[in-house]
């Protein structure tokens, strides 16, 4: 019957990665299908260059493949995967002599950062398949990309790790090596700046 514990447990990201490490190539296909979109958007929205994003994307998955036999699920698979993506992105900027993830955080301790997902999801989503919404959706997508690019690097990183990776505040803190309050600060200011940048477009589609 559906819903039995064993199949569900065997289908988790962590179990699939362990299965892949043990030689099950199909397990990798399932993981890749689940996470390729989020990882690619995370990279693309940081560097805004499809060619560079493609290269980094391939490197991230090659790194995952390379260490498959030694993988140990000490954290959620998504945390592990986005750590690979984050580190590859940092290495990319360092190689170019650019400090794209330098922190310029402001003090804040009263916001949980929970508005980030709602901000983007309130833009055209399910409606994007309606003919009269497609052009508006493309325009809003371009506005969102520009607004993300204008954010300070570490605020953008925290936002994308939560929105694309689905990471919790604690997981983002662990991944980026900062405290929870710093993560809250980054998410709060990222959300506020994105709302301000999107302005009337956000209000129209909310």
Q: Would you identify the CATH H-level superfamily of the largest domain?
A: RNA polymerase sigma factor, region 2, helix turn helix motif
What is the CATH topology of the largest domain?
Rna Polymerase Sigma Factor, Chain: A
Overall number of domains: 2
Helix content: over 70%
Low-confidence stretches: 1-8, 102-114, 122-134
What is the tally of helical segments? Answer: 11
Q: What top-tier CATH class of the largest domain fits best? A: Mainly Alpha
Q: What is the average per-residue confidence, as pLDDT, rounded to a whole number?
A: 79
- The general outline is globular
Largest sheet: none
Distance between the termini: 40 Å
Radius of gyration: 18 Å
Structural description of this entry:
By secondary structure, this protein is mainly alpha-helical. The protein folds into 2 domains: 5-95, RNA polymerase sigma factor, region 2, helix turn helix motif (Rna Polymerase Sigma Factor, Chain: A, Orthogonal Bundle), CATH 1.10.1740; 115-205, Orthogonal Bundle (Arc Repressor Mutant, subunit A), CATH 1.10.10. Helix content is 70%, strand content 0%. It has helices spanning 5-10, 13-21, 25-47, 50-66, 77-95, 115-121, 131-150, 153-163, 169-176, 180-198, 200-205. Helix 4 (50-66) crosses helix 5 and helix 8 (153-163) packs across helix 10 (180-198). The longest helix has 23 residues, at 25-47. The radius of gyration is 18 Å and the shape is globular. The termini are far apart.
């Amino acid at each position: 019957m559906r819903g039995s514990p064993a199949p569900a447990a065997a289908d988790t990201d962590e179990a699939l990665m362990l299965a892949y490490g043990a030689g099950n190539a199909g397990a990798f296909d399932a993981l890749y299908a689940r996470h390729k979109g989020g990882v690619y958007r995370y990279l693309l929205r940081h560097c805004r260059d499809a060619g560079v994003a493609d290269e980094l994307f391939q490197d991230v998955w090659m790194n995952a493949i390379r260490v498959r036999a030694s993988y140990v699920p000490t954290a959620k698979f998504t945390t592990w995967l986005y750590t690979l993506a984050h580190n590859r992105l940092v290495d990319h900027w360092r190689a170019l002599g650019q400090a794209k993830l330098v922190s310029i955080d402001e003090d804040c301790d009263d916001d949980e950062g929970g508005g980030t997902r709602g901000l983007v999801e309130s833009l055209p989503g399910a409606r994007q398949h309606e003919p009269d919404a497609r052009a508006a959706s493309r325009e809003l997508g371009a506005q969102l990309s520009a607004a993300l690019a204008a954010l300070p690097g570490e605020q953008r990183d925290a936002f994308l790790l939560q929105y694309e990776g689905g990471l919790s505040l604690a997981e983002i803190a662990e991944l980026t090596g900062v405290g929870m309050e710093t993560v809250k600060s980054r998410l709060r200011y990222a959300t506020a700046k994105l709302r301000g940048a999107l302005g009337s477009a956000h209000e129209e589609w909310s």
